Amino acid sequence: MSELSVSVIQVSYGDDEAMADRIERVAGMVRAEAGQDLVVLPELWPVGGFDVKHWAERAQQVPAVGTVPADGPDDPALAVVRAMSAAARDAGVHLHAGSTVERSAEPGPEGKDLWNSSLVFGPDGALRATYRKVHRFGFSSGEARTIEAGSDLVTVPIEGFTAHLATCFDLRFPEFFRAGLDAGADLLVIPAAWPMPRREHWRTLLRARAIENQMPVIACNTAGTHAGDHEMGGASVVVDAAGSVLAEAGDGEQVLRAVLDPAHTAQQREDFPVLAARRW
């Protein structure tokens, strides 16, 4: 089993940066990580993590899994998938492109056609996986009112690991990660737009998910202040299967790099076989 070299790009942005400019800037940051195996971006970085009033106008089309986004005339609704596909291909990396707001052709059960969708591209630029966020934040407002809830658990193979995809508020639901474990996952990748006031929850829950599932966690949060006064928490982190922090970001824009070894995960599960003691 080979090691996985990871880059976590904690993007910082504000309301003064145009969406098109940010997409171009972040694509360049991805290309700069050529030589790594996996690059991870935050949740909703193209459209603004709390910028709900602009989501519909900034929503993106998402192609079918297994396809490379086709070239064609400039289309703002394809800007994210085209730019991220090209950046992954140019860098030769697996790219978890964080998430964006997706507009689907068919509405969901609640009659909405918007989703918070995470996109994973392969080194060939093909879309390898799409995960629609299951647990929406906002309770009766914000994301919970604006977008549909996903219903599928999604895993994707990445260089010897099986990654369970989750997004931000999902982190508060431990049963979701047990389901990923039972589906064969041995790595958690979670982009987020987690705010500063609850940053200690973020840190605690990420290590808890790693420890209780004996599963490394790659978590990429946003930095900066946007949608008026929403200060983001930063503190992106890579945690190993024993719960040890391998790398952690500060408050601003930063790139973390770490190496994960699947043999370490297997050894941790063998040396301390807590998962074998489960009763249900």
UniProtKB/TrEMBL annotation:
Keywords: Hydrolase. The keyword Hydrolase applies. GO terms for molecular function: hydrolase activity. It comes from the Bacteria. SUPFAM superfamilies: Carbon-nitrogen hydrolase. Residues 4-262 form the CN hydrolase domain. The keyword Hydrolase applies. It holds the Pfam family CN_hydrolase. PANTHER family: DEAMINATED GLUTATHIONE AMIDASE, NITRILASE-RELATED. Belongs to the carbon-nitrogen hydrolase superfamily. NIT1/NIT2 family. This is Carbon-nitrogen family hydrolase. It comes from Kytococcus schroeteri. The lineage of its organism: Bacteria, Bacillati, Actinomycetota, Actinomycetes, Micrococcales.
